[in-house]
Structures are given as structure tokens and as C-alpha cells.
Amino acid sequence: MNKPFEGLGPSPLNHLKDQFLLDPEIAYFNHGAYGACPRPVFEAYQRYQHELEREPATLLYREFTKRMEEARGGLSLFLNCESDQIAFVRNVTYGLNMVTQSLIINEGDKVLATEHEYGAVDRMWETVCEERGADFVRIKMPLPLESNSSAVELLKANIDPSVKIITFPHIAPETAQLFPIKELTKIARDAGAVSVIDGAHAPGQIKVNLKEIGADFYVGNCHKWMLSPKGAGFVYASRKYENRIRPPAISWGNISEGTSSLLLENDWQGTTDISSILAVQDAINFLNKNKWFETVVPRSNQLIKEFNEITLSITGMDDLYLHTDFQPPQMRSYLLPEGDHSSLHTELFHRFKVDVPVFLHPKGSMFRISVQAYNNESDLERLAKALKEMLR
Questions:
Q1: Are 56 and 133 part of one and the same domain?
Q2: Separation of CA 147 from chain center
Q3: Whose CB among 119, 204, 254, 372 lies 3.0–4.6 Å from 225's, allowing a Cys bridge?
Q4: pLDDT (tens digit, 9 = 90+) per residue, 259-270?
Q5: Is 322 buried (19+), middle (13-18) or exposed (0-12) by CB count in 10 A?
Q6: Residue 30 — left, alpha, or beta (φ > 0 → left; ψ -120 to 50 → alpha)?
Q7: How far apart are CA 249 and CA 11, in angstroms?
Q8: Which residues make beta-bridge pairs with 88?
């Protein structure tokens, strides 16, 4: 009988492990939470910071417009959209708040969401709807989902004339479900509702094509799967809504080039360190140089597939994925058996030097793994051994 992972052979990507600044003693499976920035990208980020401190007025005034246009241009090519449809923000939570505060939500309106939203996003919609007298409705979705069509039908069944906004994640953060994004966006469009997509985990893990998705708003992170430094995210707005969105802070609004409020109101936010934004292009260059979607993503997915059967045998729980359609290539969540798992994350880290997020989810406690270029078979073997001991 083969040992776990024996069939995979030596990884052709082991050289990439040295390209990251992560502690080599830790088996790090928490990329989905905080990301990890490669050395070349981090060094570029530091160069931009030095540039800012050497001559602040050049970077933040004289060259600001040109440098931001270049940054947006590179990201728009990566996401397949027009460069003037993107505004940089510090992260998805901030960007979604910007969108939400800009939308017209009246008393009696409904905001439709799934049960798979990020906790901070859930709280945001609850707060805004309560303040404006609207209803925030979460659609109950079973785990595992039966099929893409079942998810689509569940959404359609909850739409009525009072539904004005439909929001959903591209990849659910805790349950790690990849949703049929184009189909769900079409349903919102057909219903005359505004579509707002939380794309925190998608760009860099999958190829995101914003023109094909056709959402009204798509908010994503660059610091997670795109590997940029922390503090870089984006808001995409369709032409219909590009003049209806503004940031929480109203600044000068006349330094950036552009004709829409998306850019005029958002680009210039005073004395802000834009180094992480400028480094987004360096992150894209790193992905392209290492043929990310051709080599790293498939390899990560292969490791997860090999780990999957082992993990399910250890937990004794059902698989959360009936179909591969719902499986993101580099993330997977697993149900834990009944019991108190409130200390599992801490004990895995301190006893085994394994970093894995654990969620006390209403549908059952679960943990999530993110497999990235720096992970290898020995990391997964360590996690499997630790889980076997902890769950014994």
C-alpha cells in the first residue's frame, strides 16, 4: 500500500517555497485569511515606500495620476475589464462598505444574500438594512449543495418585487464553495436587482473575467491569491453605477484623471501610502513569470485531492462537495465531528506548528485549508498526523 502522497512524486515547484518570507518551521495553510507576499514583490513594495519617503510630493502629487493609471491598467488586463472601471481600496470589507453606503436602499426593500457570506459582510448588510428599514434575507442553502442548478433555483425562488439588491460571494470564505457566478449574476440582472459580488478569494486562484461575469459591482482582494502586499483591493463598477459610488471620506476629487465619480472621488484619499497598490503589478508579473495558472494552481489542486480522502477518513465526516463544480482549486473546507473545537486552531499551531483556521459554523464546526506554492507533501502529512492525534 502506498504511503500518503507517495504517488505525487517530488514537486517541481519546491523552488517557490524559498520565494516566500513565511517561517519555514510552520506548515502554513491559512493563505486564504491573510495571503503571503513573495520576496520579489515585497522588495518592490519596500522600494516604493523608500521612494515615497525620499520625495513624497513626487509620488503623491506630481506623478500620482500617471502611476495610479499604470497600476489600474495592469490590474484591468488581469481581470479583463476597462481600467477606468476599477478603484483601488485597502481590502474587500472596505470596498463592500463603500458600495453599500452608495446604494439607494429604502424602507421595505429587500437585500438577498446566501448563508455563506463573510461575517463582517453579514454584519455590514444587517446594520445598513436596519438603519434604513430594509429587510436583510439570507437564503438557506444546504451543505453539500446538490448542483449548480439547485443553487440557482434556490436564489430564484426567493426573488420578489421587493428584492433590490442580491449579494453573494464568488468563493465562500468559510465553507469554501465556488458559486456559479455568471448564472447568479444573470438572475439578478433579469430581476432588475443590483448584483454585488464579494470576490475576496477569487482573483489569483481562478481566472476572473469581469466582462463575462457582468456584475454591477465586484469587489476583490489583491493581497490574498494575487500575492500583493497587504492593503490592496479593488472595487469594480459597471457603467450603470460608476457615477453612483463614492468613498466614506470625501476628499478633493480633482487630482485623478477620469470622468466618473468612481475614480474622481476614490483615487485621491490624501496622504496615503500607495506602495501596496503600486506593487500589484509586481505581483502580477510574479504570477505570470511562474506560469501560475498552468503550474502552481493545478499542483495545489492535486495536493488537495490527495489529502481529501485521508482527511475524510480521519474526521469520519461527509464530504462538503458533491460536485467538483463547487470546489475552488486551492481551498477546501472539512466538517469536524461533534465536540468542542474552540481550541483546535491554537493547539494545532502550538503543538504541531500547523496553521489552519477553524470555524464554529452554524452548519457544524469545520476547518479550511488553503494550499499554495510554498506547501508540499510534508506539510500535508504533518497536518494529517496532527488531526489524527487531536481528533482521536
A1: yes
A2: 22
A3: 204
A4: 788 888 888 888
A5: middle
A6: alpha
A7: 48
A8: 234
Distance between CA atoms of 339 and 75, rounded to whole angstroms?
44
**What residue type is assigned to position 244 of the chain?**
R
Give me the half-sphere count of Cα atoms (radius 13 Å) on the Cβ side of residue 21: 12
Q: What is the DSSP letter of 20?
A: B
Cα distance between residue 48 and residue 228, in whole Å = 13
* CB proximity list for 309: less than 8 A, separation 6 or greater: none
Q: Show which of 259, 287, 315 is a domain's final residue.
A: 287
Residues 364 and 270 reside in one and the same domain: no
* CATH number reported for the structural domain that contains residue 297 in this entry: 3.90.1150.10
Domain that holds residue 65: 43-287
Rounded to whole angstroms, the Cα distance separating 36 from 286 reads 13
Same domain, 18 and 136: no
Which residues in the chain belong to E strands, given as ranges?
27-28, 86-89, 110-114, 135-139, 163-169, 194-199, 217-221, 233-237, 331-335, 354-355, 358-361, 364-370
The answer to whether 296 and 304 are in contact (CB under 8 A) is no
Residue 18 one-letter amino acid? D
Label each residue of 110-125 as H, E or C: EEEEECCCCHHHHHHH
Determine the 3-state secondary structure of 184 from DSSP: helix
